[in-house]
Structures are given as C-alpha cells and as structure tokens.
Amino acid sequence: MRNPTRRLVTLVLAVLPLAAAAQGIYPDKPIKLVVPFPPGGNVDLSARILAPALAKELGQPVVVENKAGAGGTLGLDAVAKSAPDGYTLGIASPVNHLAAPSLYPKLPYDSIRDFTPVGLIASVPMVLVVGPSSPVQSVPELLALARTRKGAMTMASAGSGSGNHIVGELFQDATGTQFVHVPYKGSAPANTDLAGGHVDIHFDQLSSVLPLVQGGKLRPLAVTTAKRSALMPNVPTLAEAGVAKFDASTTLGLVLPGKAPPELAARLNQVLEKVLKQTAVREQFGRLGADVRESTPAEYADFIRSEIARTAKIVKDAKITLD
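Predicted structure:
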C-alpha cells in the first residue's frame, strides 16, 4: 500500500509552482531600467545609483539600458510601448516627459496616458553662471545691466527647448528682462563659450558646472531651487537674490508603461522609497548635487500634470521651437 503522507507531499509540491504562477510572484526575472539619454549624464548617473539598490531589494538584477535619441523621447517611447508587467521601467525627465508635449507636434506617446507613475527620484538644481571676465558679481547687478542693455545681452543654452532654455525663459519672465537666446549643441560648448566671454549667462545643472566653478572658469550667481545647495552653500537662491518665489530644477521620476496595475506601481513605490532612505544612496545623489525626492504614485501624478501645464505656458509665451 502506498504511503498516504508521501502522496500528499508529492501533490503539494506539484501544485506549488502553479499556485505561485497564479499569484503572479514579482519579480521572477531581471528588470530593465531604460535611460533615454547617453551614458555619463545626470539621468544616467542617477539610474546607476538606483539600479543596484533596487536589485538588492527586489532580489533580481536591474539592468540599465541606455536608449538615447530624439531629445530623450526615443527611450521613453520604448518604455511606453513595453508590456506593463513591471519588467521595463523608465526614468522620465523634464525634457522628454514634461516639456515634450509642448515641443513635439508629433510626439509618439501621451505623457500622462501612456505612463504609470511610480514615484519621484531626485531633483538637481540649475545654476545661473557667468564667465570669469564678466563685470557682474550678483543677480541684482545682472538685472540692472540687462535692463539698461535690453535685448543686447546673450543667454546660452544646451539647445532650443532644452531644460536650460526653458529655465532661462522662466527667469526672463520672472524678472522682466530680455536676453538674446544662443542655442548650442549641448551644455559643454555653451559653457566653453561662456568661460571665453562669448556669451553673457547660462543656466546649467549643478553637476555640470561644479567642476568649472571650482576651477575658476565660471562664476555662480544663484541656484534656481527654493533652498541652497550643500555643494555651493555660499551661493544664494534666486529667491534670496530678489527673484521672488523662483523654484526650478531638473526633477527625475520612475515610471512604468501605461496600464500597469496600480498594485504593481504601489509595490515598486514602496521599494523605491526604501532605497531613497538609504544613507549610501542619499550620499551618492548628494555628490551629484541632487536632493532625493520621495512621493506616492498619486503625488507624482499630480506633479506631472502641474509641470506639463507650467512648461506649456513657458513654451507658448516664449514661442520656443526646436532647432
């Protein structure tokens, strides 16, 4: 006679894999984290801080995949068109997510409908910088000079429609000044010409200008966020320098493809929040000049909607078009 206990154990072991599959245990294979920009930039470095920490919490590898092109929209489109099963995540930035609806008439995705927000990641301040030979030593001096030379001073950017450009337009609107926009193909050549005295001002990410400031090649006048940066504690905010309530930054968020289950977004949000509270992760972001941002999926969704609306107004008022 067969042992009934052994038969019961055999049946249980046979059913367990089916039960696990039915419950949809997640994750059970590697996860792809799409970075819509080339390696080495702020978005890529942020992803490479997150990936190993997320992998440790999730128990599966999180593989960073750089998919650059079309101002970051190519990679984000790939995320939007992926299966909403949690095995493809994306990092959304202001340029390819929040400004894109106003800049690209034929954007291949809807920035709200085609993504499921997981949570905010971090914000990097921008810095208003001038060249070392500039006579300007402060924001009030810059504004006084700009008003006497209306339309004659120049403002560099990393390209038309870039975050640098949009923040610069926001600054002009807030101060009633007018600068001639000089778009470059990236921040590096813009900063080179600024250092050489060929353009007057530039708004750029703190992580990009910090080495140039430390080397004496650029002079910072203010940071664009509501509070000062720990990496530039002596540099005032624009609000402190007299531009009331000015607050702008490069803020990144983690997204899933659209139609992802809410419970999946909630699960990943819990993991993200746990990661962002880790001292080692916060310190790594701090070295980029970034402040971690914690939010619920709903709070991130509200942020997306409000920033798309704010950016659309800037683009419309300044008549910004892509090169």
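Summary: The chain has eleven helices and ten strands.
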